[in-house]
Structures are given as structure tokens and as C-alpha cells.
Amino acid sequence: MEGGERAELRALMARLQDGDRSAFRPAFRLLWPRLRAFALRYLGQADGEDAAQRALLRVLSRAGEYDRDRDALAWALGIALWECRTLRRQQKRRRESLVGPPDGPAAQPTPEEAAIEHDLRVAAGAVLGTLRPVDMETLLAAAGGPRPVQGATFRKRLERALARFRLAWRAKHGND
Amino acid sequence: MATTEPTLLLERRARRAYEWGRLRSALRILPFVVLATAAAIATGRPLALALSVGGVLLPLSVGLSFAGRAPGRAVVPGLLAGGAALAMPLLVATLGHACFGPGCMTYCLHACIVGGAVAGAVIARTAVAQGPDPAFLLPALAIAALTGSLGCTISGAAGVIGMLAGVVAAGTPLLVVARR
Predict the structure, then answer these.
(1) Given A28, A98, B6, B86, which residue has the most CB atoms within 10 angstroms?
(2) What is the share, in percent, of chain B residues with pLDDT greater than 70?
(3) What does the pLDDT read at residue B177?
(4) With b meaning 16 or more CB within 10 Å and e meaning fewer, what string describes A126-136?
(5) Best mutation target, B16, B22, B65, to test chain A (most A CBs within 10 A)
(6) Which residues of B touch A63 (CB under 8 A)?
(7) What is the residue range of A128's domain?
(8) Same domain, A59 and A128
């Protein structure tokens, strides 16, 4: 961004801070391409667009707090950086919840291990059948099936479903 | 920048975000108005009167602050100036002076005039710093008068008139000198 445009953005943000609505469109037109380019460079095409939009909305909703002594572009890019990091953190968390515990070395089970695993699967299936449909759906989703809900809601449902599964298992088999 | 359909939609969302942000910002003065009204009620101002004045003051302050520009900039100086006019008579009454009957004329009315003078001086000084502009002065005076009225009705209509006289007496010379 050229020095002239930078000064223009600063003046426009000061007018927006004061409540001058006529400065909105020119400020938008100067801000959006810069925030978009920044976010795309930081996060790439897919997520950059989303982060840039969030940053733009945040910058303009906080225009009333803009300090006239500060450089408007630096202030806006600071908000964009924060949004990019937040989005990146959220996605990392989402990926972690999607990926289960790491698998051990892929060794062939012995016939005895296979028989035990088969028995356990049958027993678990029998207990699963006694649960409510929503709990069954949640446990199957955790095992790799389609998820009806995402994020914290899913985690809570899973926690409750596992607690009910343990109770039902104890009632049927007497131990964990 | 090409104004494509998504960009126009984004611009509309951004405009909404901006207006909501301004409203949130304007609502920050709400506690001050509520506190001023509560203080007037707590020190014995009639409930209906205090609520009526507060009921006009609150939307006026929030609305002007939301609108912005010179009237928006006038809100905080108006409230601060009016706060002085509100505090003086309430302070006199709280210290034990009976603000009714002939005794009222000795202290409470004077307190209203002094409070008004302080308010006038504060508004005039701020207006001088901004460049005297009716779009700033009138809203600032209206808000200061309403805030001060919360306290100065303690001396009845005379208290309010005394406060306004104080505002004019202290504010006008400052503005005149600044214009020269």
C-alpha cells in the first residue's frame, strides 16, 4: 500500500470513528483487498477468505474504538493476524478431535487374540443394542461413522453415551 | 476493486457490523445515565419526575452518540457538565440542608446556579477546543440541562432556571472571547 493510500485509510477510519457514514464505502474499498491478500498469504486460499471476512467485520465493528494517532492499516492487519491465528487454532483442535489415538504396530493377531476380540465385539454389540438410539448413533459416529453434530456438542454427547455404555456394561457383565 | 455480487453482500454485512459496533459503543453511557437517575431518586427526588427526565435523557444520549459527528461528540461533555450541576444541589441536600421553603433560597438555589456555571464553563471550553459549532453546542446544552435538572428540581422550577442562568452566564463570555 502506498503512503498516500495509507494516509487516506487513516483519515477514513478517523471519520468512521467519528460516525461519518460517507467514509464507509471508500474505507471498505481500501481495506478489503489488503485484508484479503494478507489472510490468503497467511492461511492459503481455502481458509484465508474466511479469515479475511471475519477480520473485515471485526475491524469495522470496532471502528468506534479506532485511535486516530495509530496507523489504520497496522491496526487492521493486527486484527486480521489475530483472526488468522484463531481460525488456525480452531482448525487444529477440530483435526485433533477427528483423529483418534495413534495406532500401534500393525501386527497379525494370534488366533486366541482374534477369538477374544470377536467375543468382545459381540458383547459390546449386545450392550450397544440396549442403549438409546441417540447414544448408539453417537458411539458409532465416534468409531468412524457419519457425525450428526460437530465440535463441543458432539464431545458432550460422546461423554454421556460412554458413561451410559459403561453403566450398561457393568449391569450386564459386572466389571469394566 | 470490481463490485461483484459477493463483494456487495460483504459490504452490506460489513455495514451492519459497523452500525452494531456503533450502537454497542453508544450504550456505554447507559450506566452513567442510570446512575444519575438513581442518585436523584436516592436523594429524595420524586420518582415520576426523575424517571421522566432520565427517560428523555437516556434515548437522547444514546441516539446522539450512535449518530456520531458533532452531536455525538457533545454527549460526554454534556453529561459531565450536567453531572456537576446535578451534584451540587444533591450534595447540599445530602449534607443536611432542607431544600424546601424559604431556606431553599439560601443554599440550594445558589448550588444550582454554581453547578450551572460549572456546566457552562465545561461546555464552552470543550466547544472552543472543537471550534464553536451549533451542532455541538445545542446537544451538549440539552444533555447538560437534562442531567442538571435531575438534581436542580430540588429547588423547583427556580432551581432549573437558576442552573440554566448559570450555564449562560459562565458559558457565553468564554465563547465570545474565543470567537474574537
Answers:
(1) B86
(2) 88
(3) 75
(4) ebbeebeeebe
(5) B22
(6) 18, 21-22
(7) 115-173
(8) no
Claim to verify: residue A62 and residue A87 sit in the same structural domain: yes
- The interface pTM score, or ipTM, of the predicted complex is 0.77
If asked whether residues A30 and A56 sit together in one domain, one would say yes
The confidence score (pLDDT) of residue B100 equals 55
Helix H, strand E, coil C: the string for chain A is CCHHHHHHHHHHHHHHHHCCHHHHHHHHHHHHHHHHHHHHHHHCHHHHHHHHHHHHHHHHHCHHHCCCCCCHHHHHHHHHHHHHHHHHHHHHHHHHHHCCCCCCCCCCCCHHHHHHHHHHHHHHHHHHHHCCHHHHHHHHHHCCCCCCCCHHHHHHHHHHHHHHHHHHHHHHHCCC
Q: Which residues contact B16 (CB under 8 A, 6 or more apart)?
A: none
Q: Among all residues of chain A, which has the CA nearest to that of B7?
A: A32
Q: How close, in Å, is residue A93 to chain B by CA atoms?
A: 28
Tell me whether residues A28 and B20 touch, CB distance under 8 A: no
pLDDT digit string, tens, across residues B127-161: 888 777 888 888 998 999 899 888 887 777 778 88
Dump pLDDT digits (tens) for B24-69: 999 999 999 999 999 888 877 888 988 999 999 999 999 999 999 9
A27 and A83 part of one domain = yes
Residue of B10, B18, B68 with shortest CB distance to A18: B68
- Whether residue A110 lies inside any domain: the answer is no
Question: pTM of the prediction?
Answer: 0.68
Q: Is residue A30, in this structure, part of any structural domain at all?
A: yes
Q: Are residues A67 and A145 in the same domain?
A: no
Window from A81-85, A126-130, A171-175, B4-8 with minimum mean pLDDT: A171-175
Tell me the Cα Rg of chain A: 27
Alpha-carbon span A72 to A27, nearest angstrom: 10
Q: Which of A98, A126, A157 is the last residue of a domain?
A: A98
